[in-house]
Amino acid sequence: MKKALGLIVLGILSVTFLSCQRGTEQAGGAPRIALVLKTANNPFFIDMQKGAEEAAKKLGVTLIVQAAEREVDVEKQMQIIENLIQTRVAALCVTPSGSREIVPAIEKANRAGIPVVIVDTRVDAKTMSESKGKIATFIGSDNYEGGRLAGEYIAKKLGGKGKVAVLEGIPGHETGDSRLKGFREALKAAPGIEIVASQTANWERDQGFNVFQNILQSHPEIQAVFACSDLMALGAVEAIAAAKKTGQITVVGFDASDEARQAILKGTMDATVAQSPAMMGALAVENAYRLTRGEPVKDEFVVPIKLITKENAGATDAK
Amino acid sequence: MRPGPIARLPNFISHYGRQLGTLSGLLGLILVLWALTPHFLTISNLLNIAEQATIIAIVAAGMTFVIITGGIDLAVGSVLAFSGVVMASALLRGLPLPLALMIGLGVGLACGLVNGLLITVGRLPPFIATLGMMSVARGAALMFTEGRPISGFAEGFRSLATGEVLRVPAPVIIMIVVYVVAHFVLSRTKLGRYSYAIGGNEEAALLSGINVRLYKTMVYGIAGMLSGLAAILLTARLNSAQPIAGMSYELDAIAATVIGGTSLLGGEGTIAGTLIGALIMAVLRNGLNLLSVSSFFQQVVIGSVIILAVLIDMGLKRRGK
User: Fold this and answer.
1) Contact criterion met (CB below 8 Å) for A224 and A157
2) pLDDT at residue A63, rounded to an integer
3) CB B308 to CB A9 under 8 A?
4) Cα dist. A3→A39, B25, B238, B285 in Å?
5) Of A66, A86, A130, the CB nearest to B39
6) Is residue B276 part of a domain?
7) Residue B203 sits in which domain range?
8) What is the pTM of this model?
9) A27-141+276-303 maps to CATH 3.40.50.2300
10) Do A78 and B237 touch (CB under 8 A)?
11) What's the domain count of chain B?
12) Cβ distance B200 to B267 under 8 Å?
């Protein structure tokens, strides 16, 4: 009986091993590149993973994709990176779960001589400069510009006058913070527009629903909402439907996920900002590959963004 | 005549049998991973695993005390976050390091004592009292920081996580000290013996003159203080104190405790078992990463191991009776 636990664990791991072809160790040849995502259950990161996998196939590199269970779990992400360092991957691509908390992990990779490519979320510049951490390159969207586009769209749609709510991401995330800054900057040009509520829904859909429902209770006169991600925007769409106000409130999201595009075509959402996660994933792997061959890479790649409205929501070229 | 060591062996096995069960589980796991990947059984990876286990292990040590008294503490993760941000802001305000650390431990201890008083004096079920504290401490951490992480500490503080003695990371040494002390307290002191007595039969403990209220409150205080200690180490490790840190750590700590053979019904359990439980969780996560198992399937494996470990443990217990 005492051995039973060992035996059963052995059984589980054997099944795990067999069911996972990528578990086989590479005996030299193709370099092993790791992509650590914030989470593997957000459409944005799934698209990024797809782009990365396609690029890896083209280049003939072995791609390892790992993610923590929860998007905000910086400790788990650090553990994953530490574990990947142990397997001596040739290069690490990381979408940081925390702009500051990622820095100790970068230092560890540096010490092991593994180049780090940061994707999507910028590392906090101050924390980086205080430490001895070094990244090879950054690949991401201009989130500030994206927020600005969203702000301009809402200002135009409301005719320069009205009350607006904002659903923020988790404070301290560079992506969400930059989007907010851009959004507020754009609204400065439209002094008739007032942000009456600005609260976090922690990047989550169900919280987007609850938080916006509460905002609607206290500010029923709201005419538009900007959510820093599509998941939160889609939550707000449900809250608007529950309040029987569909079509009366302008909803703008961020990410241009498939579901958000559908919602825009249906008319329950008005606009979203398209990033190109697949392109980010591909660029990450391509640059990581160059690094493993000792080739130079640019310091930064800005992936194009654009506003998606009913006119172009059906097209998939932005992906 | 004293029986020889061989003759004592069956006795030894029945006494420590359950720990041997979990220990052989851990060893089995290590053997399997050693066979599957060359990166597993290296000194640097084993130290890496030990370091990764520390935070949950320290929280789980407190959880073991609580569960042995027949209670549960769902607030440990939130208390960790709250102690962490308060200590971090004390550091940034230029308080001396030892004082800031005391503040971190103190906040944890205070939250734990409030839990204890709600349960003993307020007569709330532990599940409800600590569920409430879980939300209060989390909200307090968020209010205190306005939702933002606190970072930018001096090198001296960070060395709590980055320091090494003979290649062994400082957090691992701290964890070992915690476990040695906790083992001593649980097996050699009044507090330890009374904890088992309270968990075994609270009424009987009360009738035999044990100050149940006092000892139960102390046990929740210990759990809170150890969350504060874990907060110090986590903050040093990430170089940042996050108000959303430690989410679902209570579940990991409960899992480590239960895998280690502590009964959720109370009255039974050992601190060494909990350490093995925490190590099993850390080895499992590490191994699954090394093998590049998909992150979704990892959750299935981890959950299955928890269930199996407890199933086997219960089987052993029934046999022992």
Assistant:
1) yes
2) 95
3) yes
4) 36, 7, 38, 21
5) A86
6) yes
7) 42-320
8) 0.82
9) yes
10) yes
11) 1
12) yes
Q: Is A93 helix (H, G, I), strand (E, B) or coil?
A: strand
Residue A4 reports pLDDT greater than 80: no
Q: Is B94 on the interface with A (CB under 8 A)?
A: no
Q: Could you tell me if B161 lies within 8 Å of chain A, comparing CB atoms?
A: yes
Residue B259 lies in a domain: yes
Cα A21 to Cα A90: distance, rounded to the nearest angstrom: 19
Q: Looking at chain A, which residues constitute the CATH 3.40.50.2300 domain(s)?
A: 27-141+276-303, 143-274
Domain assignment present for B300: yes
The beta-carbon neighbor of A17 closest among B36, B238, B316 is: B36
**CATH number assigned to the domain covering A143-274:** 3.40.50.2300
**Using one digit for the tens of pLDDT, what is the confidence trace for B207-256?**
999 999 999 999 999 999 999 999 999 999 999 999 999 999 999 999 99
Average pLDDT, chain B: 91
All residues of chain B having their beta carbon less than 8 Å from the beta carbon of residue A78 are: 237-238
The alpha carbon of residue B146 and the mean position of all alpha carbons in its chain are separated, in whole angstroms, by 28
CATH of the domain at B123: 1.10.3470
Of A83, A126, A171, nearest to B147 by CB-CB distance is: A171
Q: Are B81 and B244 contacting, i.e. CB atoms less than 8 angstroms apart?
A: yes
Residue A236, SS3 per DSSP: helix
> Do A83 and B297 lie within an 8 Å CB cutoff?
no
Of B238, B287, B293, the CB nearest to A78: B238
> Is residue A24 over pLDDT 70?
no
Sign of CA dihedral B301, B305, B311, B312: positive
Cβ-based contacts of A203 with chain B (< 8 Å): none
| Residue at B159 is within a domain | yes
Count chain A–chain B contacts defined by CB atoms under 8 A: 166
B166 Rama sector, left if φ>0, alpha if ψ -120 to 50, beta otherwise: left
Q: How many helices (H) and strands (E) does chain B have?
A: 13, 4
ipTM over 0.90 threshold = no
- CB–CB contact A70 B248 (8 Å): yes
